[in-house]
Design a protein that fits this description.
Largest sheet: none
Radius of gyration: 20 Å
Number of helices: 11
Number of domains: 1
Order of helices and strands: HHHHHHHHHHH
Structural class: mainly alpha
Distance between the termini: 19 Å
Helix content: over 70%
Number of strands: 0
Shape: elongated
Amino acid sequence: MAKLLTSTRLRSYVDATRGDLPAALRLYDWNTVVSAAVLATVAMVEVIVRNSMDTQLTRWASARGERSWLDALPLEPRGVDDLDRAQRAVEARGVCVDYHDHVVAELNLGFWRYLAAQRYLTSLWVPALGKAFPHGYRDVRERRRAVERHLTSLAIVRNRVAHHEPVHRRDLCGDLRAGVELATWVHPEAGAWVASRSPLEAVIARRPHC
Protein backbone atom coordinates (compact mmCIF):
# COMPACT_ATOMS: atom_id res chain seq x y z
CA MET A 1 0.00 0.00 0.00
CA ALA A 2 2.84 2.38 0.79
CA LYS A 3 4.10 2.07 -2.80
CA LEU A 4 0.70 2.99 -4.18
CA LEU A 5 0.50 6.08 -1.98
CA THR A 6 4.11 7.06 -2.92
CA SER A 7 6.91 8.03 -0.59
CA THR A 8 6.37 11.72 -1.35
CA ARG A 9 2.77 11.66 -0.13
CA LEU A 10 3.69 9.63 2.95
CA ARG A 11 6.75 11.68 3.88
CA SER A 12 5.10 13.92 6.48
CA TYR A 13 3.43 10.90 8.10
CA VAL A 14 6.64 8.88 8.19
CA ASP A 15 8.48 11.87 9.66
CA ALA A 16 5.76 12.32 12.30
CA THR A 17 6.00 8.66 13.31
CA ARG A 18 9.82 8.61 13.24
CA GLY A 19 10.01 6.12 10.40
CA ASP A 20 7.42 3.65 11.69
CA LEU A 21 5.60 2.77 8.46
CA PRO A 22 2.57 0.97 10.02
CA ALA A 23 2.10 3.93 12.35
CA ALA A 24 2.47 6.31 9.41
CA LEU A 25 -0.29 4.48 7.55
CA ARG A 26 -2.55 4.67 10.60
CA LEU A 27 -1.91 8.41 10.78
CA TYR A 28 -2.62 8.69 7.07
CA ASP A 29 -5.95 6.92 7.58
CA TRP A 30 -6.81 9.26 10.42
CA ASN A 31 -5.88 12.27 8.30
CA THR A 32 -8.46 11.11 5.74
CA VAL A 33 -11.18 10.82 8.38
CA VAL A 34 -10.36 14.13 10.04
CA SER A 35 -10.35 15.81 6.62
CA ALA A 36 -13.95 14.73 6.12
CA ALA A 37 -14.80 16.14 9.55
CA VAL A 38 -13.18 19.43 8.61
CA LEU A 39 -15.22 19.62 5.40
CA ALA A 40 -18.45 18.92 7.28
CA THR A 41 -17.67 21.59 9.87
CA VAL A 42 -16.64 24.26 7.37
CA ALA A 43 -19.74 23.52 5.28
CA MET A 44 -22.01 24.26 8.24
CA VAL A 45 -20.23 27.49 9.07
CA GLU A 46 -20.02 28.61 5.45
CA VAL A 47 -23.78 28.33 4.92
CA ILE A 48 -24.52 30.28 8.12
CA VAL A 49 -22.02 33.01 7.26
CA ARG A 50 -22.93 33.45 3.61
CA ASN A 51 -26.66 33.55 4.35
CA SER A 52 -26.16 36.26 6.97
CA MET A 53 -23.90 38.28 4.68
CA ASP A 54 -26.35 37.84 1.79
CA THR A 55 -29.22 39.10 3.96
CA GLN A 56 -27.35 42.28 4.88
CA LEU A 57 -26.14 42.90 1.33
CA THR A 58 -29.72 42.50 0.08
CA ARG A 59 -30.93 45.11 2.57
CA TRP A 60 -28.06 47.41 1.64
CA ALA A 61 -28.84 47.13 -2.08
CA SER A 62 -32.56 47.65 -1.52
CA ALA A 63 -31.92 50.83 0.48
CA ARG A 64 -29.89 52.13 -2.46
CA GLY A 65 -32.70 51.37 -4.87
CA GLU A 66 -30.81 48.49 -6.48
CA ARG A 67 -32.58 45.37 -7.73
CA SER A 68 -29.88 43.04 -6.43
CA TRP A 69 -26.51 43.33 -4.76
CA LEU A 70 -25.16 41.01 -7.45
CA ASP A 71 -25.18 44.02 -9.76
CA ALA A 72 -24.22 46.68 -7.22
CA LEU A 73 -21.12 45.60 -5.31
CA PRO A 74 -18.09 47.89 -5.73
CA LEU A 75 -15.80 44.95 -6.36
CA GLU A 76 -12.18 44.91 -7.47
CA PRO A 77 -11.21 42.57 -10.35
CA ARG A 78 -10.81 39.41 -8.27
CA GLY A 79 -14.27 39.75 -6.80
CA VAL A 80 -15.76 40.59 -10.18
CA ASP A 81 -14.22 37.42 -11.63
CA ASP A 82 -15.56 35.26 -8.81
CA LEU A 83 -19.04 36.70 -9.21
CA ASP A 84 -18.96 36.34 -12.98
CA ARG A 85 -17.92 32.68 -12.72
CA ALA A 86 -20.74 31.96 -10.28
CA GLN A 87 -23.33 33.64 -12.49
CA ARG A 88 -22.11 31.88 -15.62
CA ALA A 89 -22.24 28.51 -13.83
CA VAL A 90 -25.84 29.10 -12.77
CA GLU A 91 -26.85 30.38 -16.20
CA ALA A 92 -25.23 27.35 -17.87
CA ARG A 93 -27.57 25.13 -15.87
CA GLY A 94 -30.54 27.08 -17.17
CA VAL A 95 -31.68 28.18 -13.72
CA CYS A 96 -34.55 30.65 -13.80
CA VAL A 97 -36.27 30.15 -10.44
CA ASP A 98 -34.43 31.46 -7.37
CA TYR A 99 -31.55 32.66 -9.55
CA HIS A 100 -30.14 34.88 -6.79
CA ASP A 101 -30.06 32.05 -4.25
CA HIS A 102 -28.34 29.74 -6.71
CA VAL A 103 -25.62 32.32 -7.39
CA VAL A 104 -25.07 32.86 -3.67
CA ALA A 105 -24.69 29.11 -3.21
CA GLU A 106 -22.25 28.95 -6.13
CA LEU A 107 -19.89 31.55 -4.64
CA ASN A 108 -17.04 29.90 -2.75
CA LEU A 109 -15.77 30.60 0.74
CA GLY A 110 -12.91 32.65 -0.68
CA PHE A 111 -15.38 35.17 -2.09
CA TRP A 112 -16.97 35.80 1.30
CA ARG A 113 -13.55 36.07 2.93
CA TYR A 114 -12.63 38.56 0.21
CA LEU A 115 -15.61 40.75 1.16
CA ALA A 116 -14.29 40.92 4.73
CA ALA A 117 -11.03 42.52 3.58
CA GLN A 118 -9.91 45.95 4.78
CA ARG A 119 -10.46 47.44 1.31
CA TYR A 120 -14.24 47.11 1.82
CA LEU A 121 -14.39 48.57 5.32
CA THR A 122 -16.11 51.83 4.40
CA SER A 123 -17.93 50.73 1.25
CA LEU A 124 -19.47 47.48 2.50
CA TRP A 125 -18.47 46.53 6.02
CA VAL A 126 -19.65 49.61 7.92
CA PRO A 127 -22.97 50.07 6.07
CA ALA A 128 -23.84 46.39 5.63
CA LEU A 129 -21.58 43.45 6.38
CA GLY A 130 -20.73 44.35 9.96
CA LYS A 131 -24.42 43.77 10.72
CA ALA A 132 -24.09 40.17 9.52
CA PHE A 133 -22.19 39.42 12.74
CA PRO A 134 -24.21 41.30 15.37
CA HIS A 135 -22.84 39.21 18.24
CA GLY A 136 -19.21 39.82 17.32
CA TYR A 137 -16.82 42.45 18.65
CA ARG A 138 -18.51 45.76 19.43
CA ASP A 139 -15.97 47.79 17.48
CA VAL A 140 -16.81 47.33 13.81
CA ARG A 141 -13.17 47.47 12.72
CA GLU A 142 -12.12 44.83 15.22
CA ARG A 143 -15.14 42.78 14.17
CA ARG A 144 -14.08 42.93 10.54
CA ARG A 145 -10.51 41.89 11.34
CA ALA A 146 -11.67 38.95 13.45
CA VAL A 147 -14.13 37.73 10.80
CA GLU A 148 -11.50 38.01 8.07
CA ARG A 149 -8.98 36.14 10.22
CA HIS A 150 -11.37 33.27 10.93
CA LEU A 151 -12.63 33.04 7.35
CA THR A 152 -9.03 32.94 6.13
CA SER A 153 -8.15 30.10 8.52
CA LEU A 154 -11.19 28.09 7.48
CA ALA A 155 -10.54 28.69 3.78
CA ILE A 156 -6.94 27.51 4.17
CA VAL A 157 -7.79 24.29 6.01
CA ARG A 158 -10.75 23.59 3.72
CA ASN A 159 -8.51 23.94 0.66
CA ARG A 160 -5.85 21.70 2.17
CA VAL A 161 -8.21 18.86 2.94
CA ALA A 162 -10.01 19.28 -0.39
CA HIS A 163 -6.67 18.58 -2.09
CA HIS A 164 -5.93 15.59 0.19
CA GLU A 165 -3.02 17.33 1.89
CA PRO A 166 -1.81 16.43 5.39
CA VAL A 167 -3.35 18.40 8.24
CA HIS A 168 -2.14 16.19 11.09
CA ARG A 169 0.26 18.90 12.29
CA ARG A 170 -2.32 21.68 12.08
CA ASP A 171 -4.16 23.12 15.08
CA LEU A 172 -7.52 21.67 14.10
CA CYS A 173 -8.97 22.49 17.50
CA GLY A 174 -8.21 26.11 16.66
CA ASP A 175 -10.02 25.74 13.36
CA LEU A 176 -13.04 24.33 15.16
CA ARG A 177 -13.00 27.24 17.60
CA ALA A 178 -12.82 29.66 14.68
CA GLY A 179 -15.83 28.04 13.05
CA VAL A 180 -17.90 28.02 16.24
CA GLU A 181 -16.98 31.65 16.97
CA LEU A 182 -17.93 32.79 13.48
CA ALA A 183 -21.30 31.09 13.72
CA THR A 184 -21.80 32.48 17.23
CA TRP A 185 -21.12 36.00 15.99
CA VAL A 186 -24.00 35.52 13.57
CA HIS A 187 -26.21 34.12 16.33
CA PRO A 188 -25.43 32.22 19.56
CA GLU A 189 -27.83 29.44 18.57
CA ALA A 190 -25.92 28.96 15.32
CA GLY A 191 -22.66 28.62 17.23
CA ALA A 192 -24.19 26.09 19.60
CA TRP A 193 -25.55 24.14 16.62
CA VAL A 194 -22.13 23.94 14.96
CA ALA A 195 -20.47 22.97 18.22
CA SER A 196 -22.97 20.18 18.85
CA ARG A 197 -23.11 18.84 15.29
CA SER A 198 -19.49 19.05 14.20
CA PRO A 199 -17.74 15.66 14.22
CA LEU A 200 -14.33 17.33 14.35
CA GLU A 201 -13.68 17.30 18.11
CA ALA A 202 -14.48 13.59 18.40
CA VAL A 203 -12.25 12.70 15.45
CA ILE A 204 -9.38 14.81 16.81
CA ALA A 205 -9.62 12.86 20.07
CA ARG A 206 -9.10 9.63 18.14
CA ARG A 207 -5.79 10.76 16.62
CA PRO A 208 -3.36 7.83 16.75
CA HIS A 209 -0.38 8.25 19.05
CA CYS A 210 2.90 8.66 17.20
